[in-house]
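Researcher: Here's a chain I'd like modeled. Treat it as a single chain, no partners, no ligands.
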Amino acid sequence: MAQPSTQWSEVVGDDEQQRHEDFARVITGLQSRTNERKGPGRAFHRKPVAALTGRITVPGGLPEYAAQGLFAQPGEYDVVIRMSNGSVVPQPDPVPDIRGFAFSVRGLDAPGALGGTTDRQDFLLINWPAFGFRDSRDFAELVPAAARGQKALAQHLISKHGVLGGPVEMLKQAAGMARPFSGFATSDFHSCVPVAWGPYAAHVHVSPIGASRNLLAWRDWGADVRARLQDGPLRWHVEAQFYTDPEATPIEDGRAPWRSAKETVAVMEADALADADAVEADHFDPWAGLVEHRPLGEIMRARKAAYFPSVQNRT
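Model: Modeled as a single isolated chain. Structure tokens:
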């Protein structure tokens, strides 16, 4: 297996600033239309499932490439976890959806990715192993169509990919949404796009530790999490998957999972419910973090442009 490399690079397009401003307008416009029908809320991952508190423990003895930023020294930190359904419109739990797992490490005091200092490190993950889009342009074109329903989505995909390619893309989207999901305590979650890891770059993953499946969890994902907490803490491995080369681990292309080794860099444990109202009032932003874990790639740069307007647009 190829070794982690520091020879990654970002490729910034000449038109990115304008494209990202347009992207932010698309996202906030979609959010505003949903707000009018459903009340104020997030642009995506609008429906909360569970809010938890706990701690993340960084062990000693990590290899040099893994011992960077938050993970440079052994230690224990408070963590807040928000679990959510990804749809722009809240829908019942049994409906196929993208599931979100955001965790925020608190109590920090260090240079931040946005300048100044930060007191937190946020990681935003989903249950898909890849983002599914090359860049934010593809995402911004598809999401408004999908929000209007299957007919509008089909028309968009046929217009973009042709009468033969459109149905193929439609099937790919349907297969992704129907990906098996056993619950928030028993499924893996993935960042799908990279962050800096000191001089290295990595995707972030969480994988559950010792959780058995509940075949009825689909009825109410949050009830499943709450019931498990009554029996004891929930635990996950936090893993970093490192950049090795442009083909196996592309920085700028979010369509395919990375093909490189993963390293466990921490254990995360949740042992209590958080204040749900406080968590919903909070923001979870991939740019809210350490400069050593600066988000990388076009998709993350588009998020930077869209997140702050989206937060402002919640009310």
